[in-house]
């Protein structure tokens, strides 16, 4: 059995996922439901690339087969994941039958036929979620159990997709995590997921108000470092990395002052840690609309090879240094998908949730 074949178990993703395409429904737009969906998914999986193409069926007079041909021309990377809403799910699934069996498809509120396009055979990585109570598609969903590798008829999943974004996001999250078959039947009973809890924290961090205190005051709330250079000074004075870094992180999030990002990390920090701090500065500058520091583009802040989170946390000469590499290639790919792109372009794997504060 090949590696690809071993992945063809029900509801299990094929990782890595080079791109995620979010496909709108008939008469819809890339700026509608799929844009709202992307806003949440990017927060949960910042390392993934999301694409929202405008399909020909945005004009309701254009037939579905035209959109299938349009997708064939996009040169979608192998093993990409297509999430289609309504007709977007049907054309994505039909694309698999047009020579793109490598693709992964999640169809939401989609029919199995429309506008002369009909699904004819089962695809291994094709998931479908719909409601037989939905008057828009109720007469066109009977074949899903025959053509999808995993499907569920959710009575509550009406065609008003915006109303169900929370649960659609859960389907996506659990699919990437490889837990969808195990957790799917508790989708409405489950308490907040890890990603949903993180989302609350990120939103809280964004709402914190900056303190009106002078930059040159002698101390910030017990001597918290104001920038990366002062983190080094705090450590020279005997403070641990964890304490100094945590204090800086709290001070920055509370103020969101660009000057907290302006100073370079000390040269005696490890190259891994300095690359991580550069990624942090660039990430926070984008997240909060601050000027990106010029120093983050210096070649010394880019690693030649991929490094895991553990290598960025402790110094190699630390007596307590321990590196915990991912348990599997899939585990590494999930860590990558949860790392900001500002980290990944430096070959640093550092999950975004590690930058949150409570």
Description:
Helix 2 packs across helix 6 (165-177), helix 3 packs across helix 4 and helix 9 (228-236) runs antiparallel to helix 10. The chain is of the alpha/beta class and 358 residues long. It folds into 2 domains: 3-190, 3-Layer(aba) Sandwich (Rossmann fold); 228-355, no CATH class. The chain is elongated, with a radius of gyration of 23 Å. Strands 2-1-3-4-7-8 form a 6-stranded parallel beta sheet, with helices on both faces. The two termini are 46 Å apart. 36% of the residues lie in helices and 9% in strands. It has helices spanning 3-6, 33-44, 64-72, 87-96, 144-147, 165-177, 180-183, 194-207, 228-236, 241-255, 271-287, 309-313, 329-337, 341-344, and strands at 20-23, 50-51, 81-85, 104-108, 113-114, 117-118, 123-130, 148-153. The protein has 14 helices and 8 strands.
Could you tell me how far the N terminus lies from the C terminus, measured between alpha carbons in angstroms?
46 Å
- Strand content range: 5-15%
Main sheet overview: 6 strands, parallel
Q: What is the rounded Rg?
A: 23 Å
* Whole-number count of domains: 2
> What's the number of extended β-strand segments?
8
């Amino acid at each position: 059995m090949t590696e690809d074949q071993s992945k063809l178990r029900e509801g299990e993703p094929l990782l890595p996922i080079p791109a995620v395409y979010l496909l709108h429904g008939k008469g819809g737009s890339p700026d509608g439901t799929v844009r709202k969906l992307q806003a949440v998914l990017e927060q949960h999986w910042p390392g993934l690339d999301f694409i929202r193409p405008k399909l020909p069926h945005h004009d309701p007079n254009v037939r579905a087969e035209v959109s299938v041909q349009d997708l064939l021309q996009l040169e979608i990377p192998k093993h990409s994941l297509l999430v289609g809403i309504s007709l977007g799910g049907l054309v994505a699934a039909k694309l698999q039958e047009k020579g793109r069996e490598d693709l992964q498809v999640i169809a939401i509120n989609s029919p199995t036929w429309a506008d002369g396009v009909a699904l004819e055979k089962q695809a291994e990585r094709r998931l479908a979620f719909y409601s037989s109570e939905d008057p828009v598609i109720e007469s066109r969903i009977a074949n899903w159990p025959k053509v999808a590798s995993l499907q569920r008829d959710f009575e509550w999943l009406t065609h008003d997709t915006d109303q169900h974004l929370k649960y659609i996001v859960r389907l996506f999250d659990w699919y990437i995590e490889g837990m969808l078959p195990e957790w799917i039947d508790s989708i409405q009973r489950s308490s907040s997921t890890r990603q949903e809890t993180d989302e609350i924290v990120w939103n809280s961090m964004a709402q914190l108000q900056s303190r009106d205190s002078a930059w040159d005051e002698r101390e910030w709330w017990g001597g918290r470092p104001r920038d990366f250079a002062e983190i080094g000074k705090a450590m020279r004075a005997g403070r641990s990395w964890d304490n100094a870094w945590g204090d800086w992180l709290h001070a920055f999030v509370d103020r969101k002052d660009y000057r907290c990002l302006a100073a370079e990390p000390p040269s005696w920090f490890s190259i891994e840690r300095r690359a991580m701090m550069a990624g942090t500065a660039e990430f926070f500058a984008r997240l909060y609309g601050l000027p990106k520091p010029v120093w983050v583009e210096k070649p010394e802040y880019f690693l030649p090879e991929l490094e895991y989170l553990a290598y960025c946390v402790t110094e190699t000469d630390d007596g307590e240094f321990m590196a915990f590499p991912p348990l599997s290639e899939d585990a590494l790919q999930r860590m990558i998908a949860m790392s900001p792109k500002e980290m990944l372009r430096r070959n640093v794997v550092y999950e975004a949730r590690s930058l949150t504060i409570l």
